[in-house]
Amino acid sequence: MDALLTGFELALTPENLLYAVVGVLLGTAVGVLPGIGPAMTVALLLPVTYNVSPSAALIMFAGIYYGGMYGGSTTSILLNTPGESSSVITALEGNKMAKAGRAAQALATAAIGSFVAGTISTVLLVALAPTVADWVVVLGAPSYFALMVLALIAVTSVLGSSKLRGFISLALGLTIGLVGTATGQARLTFGNPLLADGIDIVVVAVAIFAVGEALWVAAHLRRRPLEIIPVGRPWMDRADWRRSWKPWLRGTAYGFPFGALPAGGAEMPTFLSYITERRLAGKHKAEFGKGAIEGVAGPEAANNASAAGTLVPLLAIGLPTTATAAVILAAMQGYGLQPGPQLFEAEPELVWTLLASLFVANTLLLVINLPMAPLWAKLLRIPRPYLYAGILFFAVLGAYSVNFQWFDVALLGLFGALGFAMRRFGLPVLPLIVGVILGPRLEEQLGQALQLSQGDVSALWGEPVAVVVYALIAVLLLGPLVLRLIPGRQGPERLEDRVDELEEEVRR
Amino acid sequence: MSAAGTRPAPDGPAPDGPAADGSANRAAPGPDRAQYGLAAFLALVGVLTLVDSAGLRPGFADQVVQPSAFGYVIGAALVLLAVLLAVATARGDRAEGEAGEDVDLTQRTDWRTLAGLAGVLVATVALLDRLGWAIVGALLFAGAATVLGNRHWVRNLLIGAVLSVASWYGFYVGLGIPIPAGVLDGIL
């Protein structure tokens, strides 16, 4: 508790507060803007970490993360073409509300719900993360190795539609992680000394997120203008409040645990929240499909709660489960910080300042953004040539600033082409990024584990936690297969098929 | 990300063709031939990784995990995945392009715009060391905006120049990092 109060003192210093405001504003802006997300923004801002203190940079990144979730709801309510999977569900009811002239109420319940969910989840994060860290600190290299394998398998096979494509993406990421001389010998450098230090994660992340996206959009740019619903200042009346508060709390209860599990992501909890609210809606049930406020309040809360939840494995174990968390992890590694239990012992001030600043960011989001909603909505009208030219401009600047060498910009172009191909072939981006970041650490942990046991491979399952984790991995990989073999069952339904069904049903 | 995979914009005029039925667009005829190209690429990267690993010397005495070990595993995995992808493609598997706010998947791929952007990026790489960021950055922005369909190239150049000079000073003053000035050395 004392630690948290100290954290608040530090988070409220003018400098850190300024970074929080900048992060929150940037995050909301990129959440609203099509084509850019929080992961890309943090990746583009990685160069600032060269000369800004770690706590200030992390505060800003956390603000971007929370703000991005916030801004995404504005787009899905006013525009009805959700760009991120986590806001697909919000668009179902949110856009219907907006069309019925209730955009202000939809935005308000999304914003206030996000605040409620974010605050509760951050409390849970503060309570949980140190406990998990204490528990994790006694684990040895074999358990870490197992946990990293679990994280890789989970982001690859649980999310997304096709496991084959997930594993292709993961293998490509691990290959990129091989490049360099980390093991004492040059691997995949093709004799080029510029590759000896490996490929900088800034270049890979910016290329895959920013350049790949810009090229992909350029190839399919929507030529007819989008229909944007005008909106005034968000507000809710008493009836809206009465209908919203329970969905907020239930959404939080779904979102946080899903975010905190290594198989995180916001798709599942937002979906579960939506069907729960529809079932419990009582006399308002008929409104579902025509703009029920419960259907916005619940999923939006779930969405934000899961974002906070993903910070538990990130801070306490050092495992990223979303793209943004992965890039934040890269930033921490850039500072020489090792996320995980050591972080709580070595840098308590940094950790608690970051946690306190999450509360600050959450409050700022509510205070700044409720009155500014009409202004954010204007961002949706930015001319697309300028938007994507700007993304390319900052992408090149970000890659160039790594070493000030044209070579990095050339790599940016190559990986940008890969990013384009990934979008064309439906390869998910997250496994690749997580593979690049975790691959080298995986090798390191394996080396440590086997060194202690002098090459005895059985040491890998010599710790009880490792055994449990391997069992989990087996369930993740084999579970769907086994279910399919049980007679009379059609095999597990894919989440997105169910979302599609739901959409059909609701839109009819 | 991919949950939004197949969904056409729900309110848009229904485009014709089987892709518009809202479900996965597997009804489209013929295999997705381009996926064989992706499989070939994966196999190539996998074989390169295997060859590279085979060329490594044995590790130091205290290195229990050989430097080549991960390369062998990942390279073999890539080759295996390439085969699986080729088989899946032959059996009718089709890729679902990623959806987005500004993405209209009912349109064909606009190769002219793509080629233009690729040209702008190649020019950026070629000129960056010679002319410096302040000039190349401005050309990059103006070139990209023009290729993307904004024909006011004078205004594009002006905006690009403001952005690149501002970012140069932003790095210099704000972060204390001088970006090499190129031909403008001494002027900036």
DSSP summary, beta strand count of chain B: 0
The portion of residues assigned to helices of chain B is 40-55%
Number of helices of chain B: 5
State the low-pLDDT regions of chain A, or none: none
| SS content category of chain B | mainly alpha
Spatial gap, N to C terminus of chain A: 52 Å
Radius of gyration computed on alpha carbons of chain B: 24 Å
**Radius of gyration of chain A from the CA trace?**
22 Å
User: Largest sheet of chain A, if any?
Assistant: none
> What is the ordering of alpha helices and beta strands of chain B?
HHHHH
State the helicity of chain A in percent bands. Answer: over 70%
The arrangement of helices and strands of chain A along the chain is: HHHHHHHHHHHHHHHHHHHH
Classify the secondary structure makeup of chain A into a structural class.
mainly alpha
Percentage beta strand of chain B = under 5%
* The number of domains of chain A: 1
Low-confidence stretches of chain B: 1-27
Number of helices of chain A: 20
Which chains have the largest interface? A-B, 95 and 93 residues
Could you explain how this protein is built, in words?
- The complex is a heterodimer of chains A (508) and B (188).
- With 508 residues, chain A is mainly alpha-helical.
- Chain A is 73% helix and 0% strand.
- Chain A has one domain.
- The longest helix of chain A is centred in the first third of the chain and has 49 residues, at 88-136.
- The mean pLDDT of chain A is 87.
- Chain B has 2 domains: 2-90; 111-184, no CATH class.
- Chain B has helices spanning 34-54, 69-90, 111-131, 133-147, 153-175.
- In chain B, helix 1 (34-54) packs antiparallel against helix 2, helix 3 packs antiparallel against helix 4 (133-147) and helix 4 crosses helix 5 (153-175).
- Chain B is flat and about 55 Å long.
- The chains are: A mainly alpha (508), B mainly alpha (188).
- Chains A and B meet through helix 7, helix 8, helix 16, helix 17 and helix 18 of A and helix 1, helix 2, helix 3, helix 4 and helix 5 of B.
